[in-house]
Design goal:
Length: about 750
């Protein structure tokens, strides 16, 4: 194995890529032969980088290994030296399966020996620029330059793409001149849907129109069969033209911030169009599914403010899905295959030797699969189709001897996502199957399967995922974090699962607002956490009542306070009509240690021996009379003795600070980013892996904080603004003896600022 790795690395593959290649036995064998043949042609010379890349690309895409020597020769002799030529060569070979190829015809089809001069490139581009001159002058640099490049590449098929692009750029610059300030203004971003705030009447409004609910057949790529219009007519009769969407999570993990976008889009689009949205569990893999995930998913959907029209399960349709699989076999579109799982991994998998087995034989074997007469992995049911990513004959059913959480031991064969998803959409009469961009490669298989079974075919629409920096959302990686003790569980407030965000104190409205601002685009969106936190602050500023808490207490005795009293504190100082609460005010109060300095410093506005400070809401200004220190070698600060005066009777102090009197003791947990780098999963940024990138200061626990008594009856997840400190939420770990608060976010202002 080490020898093979070295051979593959000799043509420029890194060690990881070489080892991955070795996992595909057929690919490894073919690549080794190609390298040996290339070395035979070169003699003592080494394979240069361009030829090595071409060689690897050729081997991974070559369907007919008998043409290996033929193509290797053309690559090593530099007769084929571009990706365009290689693609043309592979297409020619595929369409000419005869044993003896006509070399002249092959070379003509691949552009062998064709030389495109700079003068030819210049003349061709000049003609194209002249054709679009008026529109270019009108739109300037907002014109879609891709049109120019597309026409140039068509006219100059075998020219070097970089040289063509440089010529296009130069001639455009010559025509339009340098970019002006107007040219540099950003063009407004175009959304598939413009998403407005969740609580508005119409949270989703269409800017770029998708298909009307009964016009599926007008969608790009939609396959129209002789029965399509009849099926659409029946669908319209059953739904009354109602928009129907679905949110279809796998119940094998907890939802995260990316799912929040999917929930908002699916439920929001249906709501905006007076439609309905299903919550459908894709429960087709009993090995990974647990009841706690079903419960948590529904809970989070409802927490975000959405109510599913119905909660359904893929397992509701197991019998119907099985019957449809039998029908698919009868129609000649599926077969039972004995290739093992490891043989089906990777690309360029050789066709199954059982692909053309008789229909009756596949029906008999599929029935035996159903009856548990084969071992796991021994046989599968595969569909006769090629997916957009080149994957051939995806698996429809596999054997798993694991009891299902809903159906128990009734089934030992389970359908795959590629088989189940589109059929459940069809069964539920979904109109818009909204999914993330990685499923675009499955769109053709989605249409193919519905049409192969002559069923109503919904339309799949893809949009870009939502990712955040400084975090991981992969289920496997979160499990690693839990198992290694880095985080407590899936709801650790340093994670970006929805349960974690709820525990940290993020309001659902803020998450929905964030998703609305991100919008729905085709491109993947990667945002920084502070943008989400800004949405959190906006909501909490209007909804979180104020309280006072001291994280690092300093005892203060007011020597001249005549008597203990009570102070009324507004819940929302900017709008006192929204309510207030009462807190005690006695001779003994506590302030933050950082709000006192024994030695005056320039710019410091709070309490010093020579500078008084106001007490928020109390109506008093205090002045230091005595600093009391512990009598040991450190002489550390212990407490202060002060006098007070009515704020009406003295000069206005430079600052007012918060305080507590007769407080409750509590624990406060302060959170920072869990990871040190923006992209902890990127090997280029974190070579040692995400577990090596943990921020040692991501959690600070303050066990002896103090909070005013107004929060004493708070319930779990109740939220407060601790004045001058931040926004906090009551944690589920709280008991009647000790409250525990999580810091949700800091205040907008610098924590050290008055």
């Amino acid at each position: 194995m080490a020898d093979m790795v070295s051979i593959f690395m000799s043509i420029g593959l890194n060690e990881q890529k070489a080892k991955e290649t070795l996992k595909n036995e057929a690919l490894s064998s073919t690549l080794k032969k190609a390298i040996e043949q290339a070395r035979g042609l070169l003699g003592s010379a080494s394979i240069d980088k361009t030829a090595a890349t071409m060689l690897y690309n050729m081997v991974t895409r070559l369907k007919d290994p008998t043409r290996l020597s033929f193509l290797t020769e053309y690559i090593i002799t530099r007769k084929i030296n571009s990706e365009l030529q290689l693609s043309a060569a592979l297409d020619f070979i595929k369409s000419h399966p005869q044993e003896n190829l006509d070399r002249l015809e092959f070379e003509a089809a691949c552009g062998v020996g064709v030389v495109v001069t700079p003068e030819q490139i210049e003349d061709a581009v000049e003609l194209i620029i002249r054709k679009h001159k008026d529109q270019l002058l009108a739109e300037r640099y907002r014109f879609n330059m891709g049109i120019l490049m597309g026409e140039a590449r068509t006219a100059l098929k075998w020219a070097d793409g970089k040289i063509v692009k440089n010529e296009v750029d130069m001639q455009v610059l010559h025509l339009l001149g340098p970019k002006t300030e107007a040219d540099l203004e950003k063009k407004p971003k175009v959304y598939f849907y413009s998403v407005f705030l969740w609580h508005t009447h119409n949270p989703f409004s269409t800017k770029k129109k998708v298909h009307k609910k009964w016009k599926n057949y007008k969608t790009e790529g939609y396959v129209v069969t002789p029965n399509t219009m009849n099926l659409l007519k029946k669908h319209l009769e059953e739904t009354g033209g109602q928009v129907r969407t679905r949110f279809p999570p796998e119940p094998n993990g907890i939802l995260h911030i990316g799912h929040a976008k999917a929930i908002n889009f699916n439920f929001g689009y249906a709501k905006a169009n007076n439609g309905i949205c299903f919550l459908r569990y894709d429960d087709t893999n009993p090995e990974k599914e647990e009841e706690k995930y079903f419960t948590a998913i529904k809970e989070m959907v409802e927490w975000l403010g959405y109510k599913p029209y119905a909660v359904t399960h893929a397992s509701d349709q197991f019998q119907l899905l099985y019957d449809l699989a039998v029908d698919l076999i009868r129609r000649g579109h599926a077969y039972v295959c004995h290739q093992r799982g490891e043989e089906l991994k990777g690309h360029n998998i050789p066709p199954s030797p059982w692909r053309e087995r008789p229909v009756e034989e596949s029906l008999l074997l599929f029935d035996r699969m159903r009856k548990g007469m084969f071992a796991e992995g021994e046989v599968t049911l595969r569909m006769k189709m090629v997916m957009e990513d080149g994957k051939m004959d995806p698996v429809a059913y596999r054997i798993k001897y694991t009891p299902h959480h809903r159906t128990g031991d009734t089934w030992c064969i389970y359908p795959t996502y590629d088989y189940t998803h589109c059929l459940c959409d069809s069964i539920e009469n979904i109109t818009h199957s909204l999914c993330t961009k990685e499923f675009q490669a499955r769109r053709s298989s989605y249409f193919w399967l519905c049409n192969a079974l002559d069923l109503y075919c919904p339309v799949q629409w893809e949009y870009g995922r939502l990712n955040l920096t400084y975090t991981v959302v992969s289920k496997r990686k979160i499990i690693k974090l839990v198992e290694t003790g880095i985080v407590r569980d899936w709801d650790d407030p340093r994670l970006f699962t929805l349960t974690a965000l709820r525990r940290r104190g993020f309001p659902p409205q803020a998450i929905n607002n964030f998703c609305a601002r991100v919008g729905v685009t085709v491109a993947q969106t990667t945002m920084e956490p502070h943008l989400l936190e800004a949405c959190v602050r906006e909501v909490l500023n209007d909804t979180a009542p104020r309280a006072m808490a001291i994280l690092e207490p300093l005892k203060v005795t007011i020597t001249n306070l005549p008597t203990s009293t009570e102070v009324r504190v507004p819940d929302f100082p900017a709008n006192e009509a929204k309510g207030s609460h009462v807190v005690p005010f006695s001779k003994t109060i506590f302030i933050e240690q950082s709000d006192f300095r024994e030695v005056m410093e320039k710019g410091y506005k709070r309490l010093t021996p020579d500078q008084p400070v106001g007490l928020r809401h109390a109506g008093y200004v205090i002045s230091v009379q005595r600093v009391i220190k512990v009598r040991d070698h450190s002489l550390s600060l212990c407490e202060l003795e002060v006098t007070c005066a009515s704020s009406d009777s003295v000069e206005k102090p430079k600052a007012f600070i918060h305080w507590v009197s007769d407080p409750l003791r509590c624990e406060v947990r302060l959170y920072e980013s869990l990871f040190l780098h923006k992209n902890p999963e990127d090997p280029a940024e974190v070579p040692a892996g995400f577990l090596s990138d943990i921020n040692p200061n991501s959690l600070t626990v303050i066990g002896s904080a103090l909070v005013d008594r107004s929060v004493g009856k708070a319930k779990v997840f109740d939220k407060f603004q601790f004045e001058r400190v931040g926004y906090f939420s009551l944690d589920p770990d709280s008991t009647s003896e000790k409250l525990v608060f999580n810091r949700t976010v800091t205040l907008k202002e610098d924590p050290g600022k008055i």
